[in-house]
What does this fold into?
Amino acid sequence: KDGQERDKDKADRATSEQVLDQRTRMILYQMINRGAVSEVHGAISTGKEANVYGAVAYPDIHGPPVQRAVKVYKTAILSFKDRERYITGEHRFKSGADKGNNRKMVKLWAEKEFRNLRRIHSAGIACPEPIQLKLHVLVMDFLGDRKGWAYPRLRDATIPADDAEQIWMHLYIQLLGIMRRMYQVCKLVHADLSEYNILYNDKQLYIIDVSQSVEHDHPRSLEFLRMDIKNTGDFFRRQGVDTLSDRTVFDFITISEGVVEEPGLAQAIERLYASRSAAADDDTATAEQEVDNEVFRNQYIPQTLDQVYDIEKDAEKIGEGKGSNLVYRNLLADQVVQPNEAEPRSSEDESDNGAALDSDDDGSSE
Ligand code: ADP
Ligand code: MG
It folds into this structure.
């Protein structure tokens, strides 16, 4: 490499490491002028793709200060390249991501996080409230104590030993409710959910880091959901929680029957526990569940009815109450004609089927 190229490399690296580059500083000055923040403090977290800073604002001139968090996406990074899979196929980003332009990409991620947070927050799920967005800089509520200490990630949470078993179970159920609500009400799959992207305080979970979250009609949303279920389930199992099988959780989240509100939610989960197969003993039950999880994790998940191998055969099976091992049976549910409520069918029905199914492709469960 010649000298000039080396200098350019150095400059690129400088902007990726020292996040508060000229442009970012200008954005922060502007935000300060407009009152979204008045002081930006030290970094709470420095990550591969973004840094998060603590900040203070005075939304009411005569009122007390409030704490905020400022997430600054890094503009000179390569890791955004693997994130393409989250954006491709998202109808909100039809124009697609311009891989050649990092700044645009990063702005897109910040925008996505802002909108997703807004949606999750309005659905009443505990998460930081998004306050302001400008290019790659996002201002949100600070999740932490009054002294400015951010709440720990669930991974680092200290759970009182006396009550640990009960609290972990309570948190597990809480998280299942959050995932279901996020899917049913927000129409979103987190897609990077784990003990690293959940903050914890006082028996309450807070969902963060939602820039990669996808709409439930994203071509890979169910695959991402299955991964979220595995990652969170693995974590709770390590804490000694008797978890439900991945398949049961998947159905609980995706099948839109029943409640998404407390207290019915907790009761619905209790019913799931009650209806588990009554294996002879705990070890057998655990082994059975491990096998089922393994099968479920390797099962092909079609996202649209187009991708189902033999839709008529599968719909028929489900109609006969046999398709319980099909991952996508809720996708087919609308296609199933119950014997007793079957409408008289015209002879054209068969050739009509294709078109009728196509029009259903966008997951129109609403
Ligand atoms: P990354 O893309 O770097 O993983 P995250 O959104 O997960 O970004 O944030 C990184 C860390 O910053 C979190 O683990 C958490 O400790 C802290 N953090 C993020 N948002 C907030 C917030 N609103 N309040 C307090 N701390 C936060
Ligand atoms: Mg994170």
